[in-house]
Amino acid sequence: MIKTYVILLSTEYDREKVTAYFDTLANQITTWFFALPYSLYVKSELGAVEISEIIQLKFGTEKKHLVVEITNNYWGRQDKVVWEKFPPTTNTPKKITK
Known about the structure:
By secondary structure, this protein is an alpha+beta fold.
């Protein structure tokens, strides 16, 4: 089953090098995209631990990162094209009042 993850990268990472590396892993990383600095969204059948290990194998264990599966409990501001790549949410929008 393909799952969606957000990967938060410390500023020590060069995101372009990470995405170039993910491009070589087409059999493990189905797709990736980004919309925020120092983060990536990834679709993969791998688990969070496996994705983290792949990052560490290439870039070492000194740099910090966090891999989190996005399920159905999320909310925030993104472009529509980004939301379309996420699993459906169970949250209902509420009007924000000041």
